[in-house]
Amino acid sequence: MPYDSKAYLSTPSSTSTEALGVVGEIREYIDATYGKQFYRLVKNATGSDIVANLAVVYASGSSVNCALSGDEAAAATVAGITQNIIPDTHYAWVCCGGACKGKAAADVAANALVTTDGSAGLLDDNSTSGIEHCIIGVCPTAITFATEPTGTIRLRGLM
């Protein structure tokens, strides 16, 4: 019988002051709303808690420490999108593949390509001319910021 080498995640909301896996580890999770997702291990190194649904990038020189994303962060630096609160100095899992919930900086059009926006981990459908390397996914349905600032983001290119 073949060996299933996939590592599955049972509780993506887990956080700990000790590593929950190895640096660079990606685990699969089946979410009731979003379907198959991929999660990456990170450590909050910001000095404060990171709330859910925000994009995080790797801190300079690290493969695990993360901080909130800045404006038009290169996709290669984006670790993923938090789906749960990550307390300061804690390890946790962030979604890096599949569909997940993300928080927008403003209205986002349906089927728009999405990049990071500002310095607070928010997302937006900025003009992609010249910043194609910053696209982290697509927003399949519109986000109306005034009504509900979060919506579904289908991530790509973060693994």
Q: What sequence of helices (H) and strands (E) makes up the elements?
A: EEEEEEEEEE
Please summarize the sheet with the most strands: 5 strands, mixed, barrel
Structural class: mainly beta
Radius of gyration: 15 Å
Strand content: 35-45%
Number of domains: 1
Number of strands: 10
Number of distinct helices: 0
Helix content: under 10%
Question: What's the overall geometry?
Answer: globular
The residue-averaged pLDDT reads: 94
Poorly predicted tracts of residues: none
Please report the distance between the alpha carbons of the first and last residues. 28 Å
Strand order of the main beta sheet, please?
2-4-3-5-6
Structure description:
The chain has strands at residues 26-31, 35-44, 55-58, 65-68, 78-82, 91-103, 112-117, 122-124, 137-139, 150-155. The chain is mostly beta strands. The protein has one domain. It starts with 25 loop residues before the first strand and ends with a strand.
Quick gist of this model?
The chain is mainly β. It has strands spanning 26-31, 35-44, 55-58, 65-68, 78-82, 91-103, 112-117, 122-124, 137-139, 150-155.
